[in-house]
Structure formats: C-alpha cells, structure tokens
C-alpha cells in the first residue's frame, strides 16, 4: 500500500467544520490503496468531538504538533460575548498568511522527520489555515522528487476578507509561490477552479475540482435526538441551521433576521414558526436573535452525529452564504449533507454555484441575502 503524508491543521478530535474533508480522506483512502500518515495540530479546540476519531481506521498514523491556536483553551461561550479590541486582535489581520503561522516550523520539522523514513509517495496539504501550505512548500525544497498535492478548501488571497493592501499583496505572493511549486492543486468547486485559472494563472491541466460530499454512514440518522433543548415541539414549522456563522457570513445573515422581525411584527410566533440555530455563532448573531425571541432559539455546539439527527428531523434546513464572490463560487460543507437527508432547503445566497445546484436537484428555494421582503415572503410560503 502506498503512503500519503497528509498535513492538515484541523483533524479529529477537533469538531471544527474544516475537519471533515481530510478526516474522510483519511477514512476512505485506504480503500484505494493509499495509507495516510497524518501530521496535525495537538489540542482538541473549543468544541471537541471524540467520536470523529473513532471513525478512522485503527491503524491510522497520526503525528501531532504541540503548538495550537490561541483560542483553543477558551470556553464555548466566548463567541456569545462581544470581545474587547485588544492589541492581538488588531494585529491579527497583519499576520500573513494567518495566525497559525507559529505552527509551521514545528510541523515542518515533524513532517520532514517522517518523510526521511523513505516510505512516503505523496505529500498533501490542506487549508485553511493557509499556513499549512508553507509546510508543503518547505518539504518540496527538501524532497523535490516527492509529488506535492495542494488542497484549497477556500479562496486564499482572493477571499473577500483580504481588505488590507500589504497583507493582500504578501498573501498573493506566497500563494503564487505555493501554486508554482505544487505538482497539482485541488479545489472544492468549479467556480473556485476558474478563479485560480483566471486570476492566479494556474494551468488548467494542473488543477482539479473535488467537491465536498456526504458520507452515507453519517447521513443514516438514528431517529432519536440526544439534545432535549434542540427539540422541535409538535405544531410549528421547524427551520434549522446547523453549524457556525462567523465573520462576513454573520453580516450577511442580518437580512434573514430582518425578515423574521417582519413576521414577528405581523403576530407570527413560535406556535407557527420556530427557527433554531445549532452550533457556534458570532456575537452579531446572538444580538440579532435577541430581537426576535418569539421565533429564534440558539442551541450550543453538538457532536456531528447529533447534528445530523437535528438536520434529519427539521421541517426545513437553512443555508446562509455571503453576498459576495465567495458566496457565488463556494459551497458550504453542510450543503451535501442537507441534500443527502432530503429535507427542503431554504437557501439565502447570491446567484452562483449553490443556487444552481439546489435548482437542478429541486432541493428547495433560494433568495438573495439582501432581499428582505423576498426572504419574508419565502418564510410565509413555508408556514
């Protein structure tokens, strides 16, 4: 069996959304005669999900690097409180490519030691965090004959949150260097592939789209929910969003909450409609939810298995994307689980990849994030 050195910052037992793509690669690549050797960060993060680790083959070799994110030790409730603007938070946008840069030297050393054993046929790095690709870049200099596959789950320098000129230019320079050094690049959508070809000069034959997906073992719900606080009571239409909303997506969600305020003003209450947000959410989401207490509940993070149960028992599943380039060309990782579970989807997103996929599969309806009246109308039609 061939061996793959798989380098990824997020990996089980972390419960972050970035975990699943590489965790599934590690789970299923042995069926295709590739045995992963995983190099990842130590620590479990603020939301551990130990069950994810039990789903991996028992012989999976996992090497953990001691440096972890600064927020790993913070409690789960931290995102519900507006943080103070410390000097660290002001400095964060200037750290290129990202604050996980501190992880790179130790990860590179550990990966190089494992590579020297001589049984690795392929190196694969996956980001974000994009500093992970610096490990691949360094290893390519040390071992140029070992192919390097660079996996991008999100746009890097072309991401909408790259607003500062100097960090943007540095990120673009580093990204180009990585793209030129990698033997092949994988991305998660066709729109992202086109972006890489047109704006970053990647040759079409050197880039492949491998979309996210779903695992049939995960999407076979147990039929019993283990979180009583997230139960939908009989009667009202139950709409659920399961995951996290932070950053620009929290801003884009404000149109949805404005639509809920319209419905609440019309006298619609939770006897007819209940919207549940299950997971980790930015302070802006908690604030917006406080203005529609009759219609919205926020439920803390649950395990992935529990999350699937919650999705499967909802009347409607909610998607929220940013109203920008990223919202047009990207999928959320939960989209494919939504599709697999067969529940109707209310998609709040600009025209683009997700809207096209939902339309082509007949999986639900789509509304622009800024069209508050249309969002309210879509909600009324569901009640």
The beta-strand count equals 13
What is the strand arrangement across the widest sheet?
3-2-1-4-5-6-7
Strand content: 15-25%
Helix count, DSSP H or I runs of 4 or more residues: 15
Strand count, sense and closure of the main sheet?
A: 7 strands, parallel
Task: Write a brief structural summary.
The chain has 15 helices and 13 strands. It is of the alpha/beta class.
Overall description:
With 383 residues, the protein is an alpha/beta fold. The protein folds into two domains: 208 residues, Glycogen Phosphorylase B (Rossmann fold), CATH 3.40.50; 151 residues, Glycogen Phosphorylase B (Rossmann fold), CATH 3.40.50.2000. It has 15 helices and 13 strands. The strands form two sheets. It has a seven-stranded parallel sheet, with helices on both faces. A six-stranded parallel sheet has the order 10-9-8-11-12-13, sandwiched between helices. The longest helix has 17 residues. The radius of gyration is 21 Å and the shape is globular. It starts with a strand and ends with a helix.
How would you summarize the topology of this molecule?
Blueprint: E1 2-8, H1 19-28, E2 34-41, H2 51-54, E3 61-65, H3 87-91, H4 104-115, E4 122-127, H5 132-142, E5 148-152, H6 165-181, E6 184-187, H7 190-200, E7 207-209, E8 237-245, H8 248-252, H9 254-265, E9 273-281, H10 283-290, E10 296-299, H11 304-312, E11 316-320, H12 325-329, H13 335-341, E12 345-348, H14 353-361, E13 364-367, H15 372-382
Parallel strand pairs: 1-2, 1-4, 2-3, 4-5, 5-6, 6-7, 8-9, 8-11, 9-10, 11-12, 12-13
Helix pairs in contact: 4-5, 5-6, 9-15
């Amino acid at each position: 069996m061939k061996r793959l050195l798989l380098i990824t910052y997020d990996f089980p037992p972390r419960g972050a959304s970035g975990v699943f793509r590489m965790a599934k690669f590690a789970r299923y690549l042995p069926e295709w005669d590739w045995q992963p050797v995983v190099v990842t960060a130590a620590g479990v993060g603020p939301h551990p999900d130990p069950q994810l680790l039990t789903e991996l083959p028992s012989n999976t070799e996992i090497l953990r690097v001691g440096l972890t994110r600064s927020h790993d030790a913070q409690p789960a409730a931290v995102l519900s409180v507006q943080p103070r603007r410390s000097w660290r938070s002001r400095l964060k946008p200037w750290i290129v490519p990202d604050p996980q840069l501190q992880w790179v030297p130790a990860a590179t050393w550990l990966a190089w030691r494992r590579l020297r054993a001589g049984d690795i046929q392929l190196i694969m790095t996956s980001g974000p965090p994009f500093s992970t690709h610096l490990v691949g870049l360094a290893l390519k200099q040390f071992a140029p004959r070992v192919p390097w596959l660079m996996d991008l789950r999100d746009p890097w320098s072309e991401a909408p949150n790259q607003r500062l000129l100097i960090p943007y230019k540095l990120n673009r320079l580093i990204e180009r260097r990585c793209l030129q050094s990698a033997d092949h690049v994988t991305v998660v959508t066709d729109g992202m592939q086109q972006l890489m070809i047109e704006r970053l000069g990647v040759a079409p034959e050197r880039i492949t789209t491998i979309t996210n997906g779903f695992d049939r073992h995960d999407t076979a719900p147990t039929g019993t929910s283990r979180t009583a606080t997230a139960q939908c009571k009989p009667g009202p239409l139950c709409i659920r969003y399961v995951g996290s909303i932070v950053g620009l997506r929290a801003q884009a969600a404000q149109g949805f909450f404005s639509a809920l305020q319209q419905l609440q003003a019309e006298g619609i209450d939770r006897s007819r409609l209940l919207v549940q947000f299950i997971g980790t959410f930015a302070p802006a989401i908690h604030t917006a939810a406080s203005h529609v207490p009759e219609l919205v509940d926020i439920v803390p993070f649950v395990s992935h298995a529990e999350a699937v149960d919650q999705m499967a028992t909802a009347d409607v599943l909610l998607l929220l994307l940013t109203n920008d380039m990223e919202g047009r060309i990207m999928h959320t990782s939960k989209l494919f689980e939504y599709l697999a579970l067969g529940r109707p989807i209310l998609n709040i997103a600009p025209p683009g990849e997700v809207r096209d996929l939902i339309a082509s599969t007949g999986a639900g309806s789509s509304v622009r994030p800024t069209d508050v009246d249309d969002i309210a109308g879509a909600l009324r039609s569901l009640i």
